[in-house]
Each structure stands twice: as C-alpha cells, then as structure tokens.
Specification:
alpha/beta, seven-stranded parallel β-sheet
C-alpha cells in the first residue's frame, strides 16, 4: 500500500493512546490516525466496546494498533501506565463513576502521564450536578435540545414527536469535538510545554450544533416552536422530482434572479409578493407551489446538472449507498479498501480532507489494524524533548493555545465562520474580510453575532487594485487563511494557492467547498 508523503502527515511522531468503550473515543482516535499520528487502542479482552464488531468497528479503527488489556487486573493496569507515560495525548471514554473505581480520573492519570494532554469524553462532563448521570446516544441527543429541531416544524407537534437521528450522531459529533480540542491541546503543549486536561461534555457538543436556536433565545427572541406556521423556504427548501427530491438554496438575490431566468422568466416571478428574500419567505407556500409545478416534471439528476452548471446551489437527495458509485468521491480517492473476514475489497470512508499541492494516490489510505505487544512498543521521537519543553517560560502556560496566530477569514454563511469562531475562542486573532456589495448572508439574523464572536472585521473590495494590495499585505503577516467560496473564485480574484504561497511560504490555506 502506498504511504502518504511525510510532508502531508501533520502528526507524524505523535503518540496517541485511546481507551474506553464509547464510540466517540474511537472516532477521536480515528481522526488523529488520519492525520498520521501513531494511535494505540486499548481494548478489553472481552471486546466489550460498542464498536468492536462489524463494519463500524473497522471503519473507526483503521490505521490504529490494538492491544488487549484488562484494566481491572494489576498486570493490565501496569502495562497501561507504561503506555500512558509515553503518550502525547490520551483520550478516555469511561463514565465518571467508572473512572473513580479504576483510579483513572484526571488527578490520578495526570500523575501517570504528566506531560500528556488528557481528553475525557463523558455524557455530561466531569463536573456539575448531572456529571454522574448515565447517557446513551439517544439520551445525550435529547438532553442537548437538538432533537427538537431535528425534523423541523410540523403541523401537529403533539402527535409528531421528534425523531431519533440515525447512526449514533452524539458519538460522532462528540468525537469530532474531542479531536478538535485535543489538537488545540497538543499545539499548546508543543508551544509552551504545558499539557492540559480537556473535559468534553457530549451534551454540550451537541447543543453547540444548534447555534440558530440558541442565538434566537439569547438575543431576546422567542424559543423556536415546533408548530408549523408556514411552509419553510424557498431560500432553502426541498422540491419534488419525477424520481425523488432535490434540495435547492437560491438564497442570494442574484441567485434567485438567475434561477428565474433559467426557468424562462415565468410570469409568476414578477409577482410583487416575491420581490425580495423577506417577502418570498413570508409567501413561501405560494413560491414553492410554483417551483414544484416545474420540478415534479424533471428528473433529480437532470435538475442537479442544469442548476449547478448555472451556479444555483442544489443537490439531489441521495441514499448513502449511492456514494459507493460516486464518480466525484472515486476521483478524490475517498474510499479505502480492506478485507473483513472472508469478504474482499470492503470499502470504508477515508479522510474528508486533502493536504498539499497534489492529489493523494487512490490507495493512499490508512493501513488496517495491527496487533502488537505493549511491552515492545518503540515510539518515534519528538523534535522537542520533555526537558527542553520544561525550560520554556512559565508565563506562557496561561496563554490560550492559539495566542499569536493570525487567521484571515474569507468564509461566510455557517461552515467557515463556525471553524474560525473555534479558532478565535482558542486565542487566534481572526480577521473577517467582507465586501460591502456582498456581505456575509449570516448578517440578516443573530447567527452572525454568534459566529462573529472574538473576531476583527475589515471591508475590502477584492476586485479593486487597492483591496487586492491590502489583503496581500495582510497575508504576509498571517498564519492561516480560510475560505469556503466555490472552486475557482480565489483564482479569479488573483488569490489562488500559487500566488498565496509566494506571498507567504508558511501560510496554511483551508478551502472548504461543497464537494471539494
């Protein structure tokens, strides 16, 4: 199997230890393995982990090494201590009461792994009045408040209960949150030699996802009702097709006008009730009725190609299995192949990102699970020794992990601004760049106030000579640039990667588009 180039392996040499039965812990470990870390999964000989069998186990443990230890026995605990002492990060997924019985709480484990970042994942956190409550995926999901808005407004809330999200979403969301926080912890440890104990509450991780619901209430609005008062849309809606459904989002005024033009400028499009976004929302039932008259005569893939070619955001509703034959995902080498039992060539999801200037090879996925003896581990050396880290100035320990890091935020709406909000909360100086002619659509409501916390702002016309010169100067003194425009926009602005890396060879550029 072809290995990923060393320069594309961000965490080469880092040692991650994973222990505990929660699926969220396996998800966290998988994300570190995807970034090139040496991940060791400690598993009970009884294979009691929720993800121990079947395809779910394989998908979350590819690329890890597995050791079986019984932590209830002195020999197993001693071997675990050896692993913990040498780790850069330990992610733990036991319930607080179990942590106490096994003496693996933060204070005790810190004695064993004094230089490691410790990441704990529990249903309700390590502290607080609910910390010792138990919580399965379903319990956590409903405790977060996210379940209320999952299915959207309904005609009769008393007869239509919230639905359960498929696929243990609580575990995957909390696992991603833990991996993100763990990365910040590693950065802080490497930069100032001070490790940290990171407390991940699964309930809080999911509540964080419902930014719109929380912001409405925070800014004095009424709590969102599940009673459907009007048909949602049309700026974001689902339309019927001959063979299924398609999601469309012509939320910008220019996109809406182009959409009408593609439909042949129908007479209903000139109705004063549909003159702007707010009026279309107010009269959404009538608008969607007109759009549905057109869409239900079309095939979903035909509409998808037609609208996307004309830059109208849309995508057909797909079955998860449809991805296995996706030309897009195949071209990007997203799926990796493995053998499970007697079955050959089992496809598993790969990394949801690409690093570097060129495409990954199609077989550049992670290796399978390797069994090994914990007594014979040979860790790879870090560039900075523990002794060297200990000589760093003590004053640095009080800083947030990303103090001194500057981020240029060219993103908008939700996905990009959410990521830069995380960076700002960890101490980065985030500079949000907008243009007066097309400001962030999130400014129409309280969403922008929430996602804009802790950021600086500047207005630049990137199509002007002065605006382009100004942002290039900003790039020279920045560490990260994040954008989520459609592919090709940055190049047309004269800010493609070939230009940016000449301006600042150390710049990290993150591009997040709909399908890559």
């Amino acid at each position: 199997m072809t290995s990923i180039d060393d320069e594309k392996v961000l965490l080469k040499g880092f040692k991650i230890l994973e222990v505990g039965p929660r699926l969220a812990v396996a998800v966290t470990g998988r994300m570190f393995a995807e970034l090139g870390a040496d991940v060791i999964k400690v598993e009970s000989p009884k294979r009691a982990d929720s993800q121990s069998d079947g395809s779910l186990f394989n998908s979350q443990n590819s690329g890890k090494r597995v050791v079986e230890l019984n932590l209830e026995e002195s020999h197993g605990l001693e071997r675990f201590k050896t692993l913990a002492e040498e780790a850069d990060l330990v992610v733990i997924g036991w319930h607080p009461s179990e942590l106490e019985s096994m003496s693996l709480g933060p204070s005790r484990l810190k004695e064993l792994a004094h230089s490691a970042v410790l990441v704990y994942i529990t249903p309700f956190g390590l502290s607080g009045v609910n910390s010792h409550h138990t919580g399965s995926d379903l319990v956590v999901f409903h405790s977060s408040g996210l379940a209320k808005s999952l299915i959207g407004p309904v005609e009769n809330p008393d007869e239509t209960p919230p639905v359960r999200a498929y696929g243990q979403q609580s575990e995957f969301i909390a696992g991603a949150a833990a991996a993100c926080a763990g990365m910040f912890g590693l950065f802080r440890s490497e930069s100032c030699g001070v490790a940290a104990v990171i407390d991940i509450s699964m309930q809080e991780s999911l509540a964080y996802m419902n930014i719109t619901g929380l912001s409405e209430k925070t800014f004095g609005g009424a709590a969102e009702s599940r009673k459907q008062n009007r048909v949602p849309g049309p700026n974001l809606t689902i339309l019927p097709a001959v063979d299924g459904f398609i999601a469309i989002s012509p939320r910008e005024e220019l996109q809406w006008k182009n959409f009408l033009k593609l439909l042949g400028n129908p007479e209903w499009g000139q109705d004063p009730r549909f003159a702007d976004r707010d009026l279309r929302q107010k009269n959404s039932e009538a608008v969607i009725g007109h759009l549905s008259d057109w869409s239900r005569t079309q095939k979903k893939m035909d509409m998808f190609r037609f609208l996307q070619e004309n830059r109208i955001p849309c995508y057909p509703m797909l079955d998860p299995a449809d991805h296995l034959d996706s030309e897009q995902l195949s071209k990007r080498g997203y799926f990796t192949s493995t053998k499970m039992g007697v079955a050959e060539d089992i496809k598993l999801p790969g990394t949801p990102f690409r690093i570097g200037d060129s495409e990954f090879a199609e077989d550049a996925g992670l290796s399978g699970i390797d069994e090994f003896d914990a007594d014979e581990i040979g860790w790879r050396e870090q560039g900075v020794s523990a002794a060297e880290r200990g000589t760093r100035e003590a004053s640095d320990s009080s800083k947030l992990p990303l103090n001194g890091v500057r981020v240029i935020d060219l993103s908008w709406v939700i996905a990009g601004p959410t990521s830069t909000r995380d960076l700002a909360s960890m101490g980065a100086e985030v500079v949000k760049v907008e243009t007066s002619s097309r400001p962030d659509p999130g400014r129409v409501g309280p969403l922008h106030d929430v996602l804009g916390q802790g950021k600086l702002g500047i207005t630049l016309n990137l199509k002007s000579e002065g605006g382009l010169e100004a942002i290039k100067k900003l790039i020279e003194s920045s560490d990260v640039l994040i954008e989520n425009f459609a592919p090709g926009v940055m190049e047309r602005l004269g800010l493609g990667w070939d230009v940016l890396k000449e301006i600042n060879p150390k710049l990290v550029m993150v591009s997040a588009s709909g399908t890559g």
